[in-house]
Structures are given as C-alpha cells and as structure tokens.
Amino acid sequence: MPLSPPPVLLIDVGGVLLLHNPDVLIPITAKYGGPATFEEFQRAHYACHHESRPARGAGKDYFDLFPEHARIPAERREAFDAEYRAAHRTRNLCNWPDPAAKAGLQAIVDAGVAVAVVSQADGTIEAMLHEAQMCQVGEGAGVPVDTILDSEVVGFNKPDPRFFQLALDRLGARPEQAIHVGDTVRADVRGAQAAGIRALHYDPYGHCDDQPGAHEHVRTMAEVLPYLGVDTA
Length: 233
Prior knowledge:
Layout: E1 8-11, E2 18-19, H1 22-31, H2 38-52, H3 62-69, H4 77-90, E3 96-97, H5 99-110, E4 114-119, H6 125-131, E5 135-137, E6 143-145, E7 147-150, H7 151-154, H8 161-171, E8 178-182, H9 185-194, E9 198-202, E10 216-218
Parallel strand pairs: 1-4, 1-8, 4-7, 5-6, 8-9, 9-10
Antiparallel strand pairs: 2-3
Helix pairs in contact: 1-4, 2-3
C-alpha cells in the first residue's frame, strides 16, 4: 500500500544502484569455467552475498564463498581466486550502474519523491555515483537526488538507526513517510526498521533467509514504485 503523501525514499547503493562490474569480472569467471553471461554472474553474486551476510548467525568472507557459487571447477579455484581477488584490489568494482535501477530511480524522482542515498562506504560513494552517471545531488548526467550520505563521512554506519534518521532529517521527513530499499537484512532492513522506517529487501533471486513475514521484498526497482504511490501505467 502506498504511503500517505509526501513519500520519501531512502536507498542503498551496492547491490541496488551499483553492481559488481560485469565488464571486468565476467571475463575472469568465464576464463575459469564460471558465469559467462550477465544473468549467470548476477545469480552467483546475490547467492554469495546472502550466504556471506546472513540474516542470522556469523557472516563469512564473500571471496571464500564465491568460487562455489560461480561453479568454478575445483581444480581451477586456486588460480581463479588469486586472479579474482587481484582484480578487486585494483579498485572498488561495485561500480557498474544498473540501467534498470537508474530508470526506476528516475521514475521515482520524476514523480516528485524526495530521495536520500544512504550507503555503507569509505568516503568515496558520492564520487563513484557521479563517475558512474547513476545519480548526484542536483543536476548532472545521472538522476538528481536530494542528498547522499556516506557512512565514513557522516560518522554513522548501518544498522545504526541514527544513520537513517540523519537521512530523514536532511529530507525534512518523518519515519512513517519513508521507504528504505537495501540488499542486506542486518544492515538495511533491520537498521531501517529500528528507525521506524518501512523496509523493502532488494532480493532479485529470492535468497532471503530471514523469518517469513519479517519484512517485505522487491526484486527490481520497478517494484518499488507502487510503494511510493508512483503510477506505473
């Protein structure tokens, strides 16, 4: 059910707006017998992401798990692991703008919904979003949003509810007006819920391991629009 106006959107970056770069990474996975298409690669990534950052229990190292989810043959995993990790050491490769996510975000902004980007980051997320032409504060090549919050810059991190409250403060909004979209249960869903915000778990392939009914799910940005009262006709 849509929120009473005026709705606002809080949105995560990694795994939602920016994805692991397929142009750089698929050639490596394909070389070792793993995913050779965008769809195969995304399925492997999200399965690995959810196992490494579960709703309950201890987290695990993403890179330790990825070769199995990518179905790299056992005899090739050591060489794959070395090359794959080396690629990620060159720069943050969660830097590829998802065109479908950008289109969904643009539709939300065009409908007059205020948007705050809220990211667990290292002080560089605003520059990354600008370089990817995904979004920026004000006019530019990306979608214009109202504010971008980087945890390293503002001093709060997810799931601290103060991080989400700061985003609301910048938008001049109340928790009951807001929807938050993110791809991790502990950080995004539970952090937003602790701040009194309705949380949508961005889970493209249905990997969520939380209790049934604990929160709502979306598989695409287009599915977010009705929650904000945006006409999708």
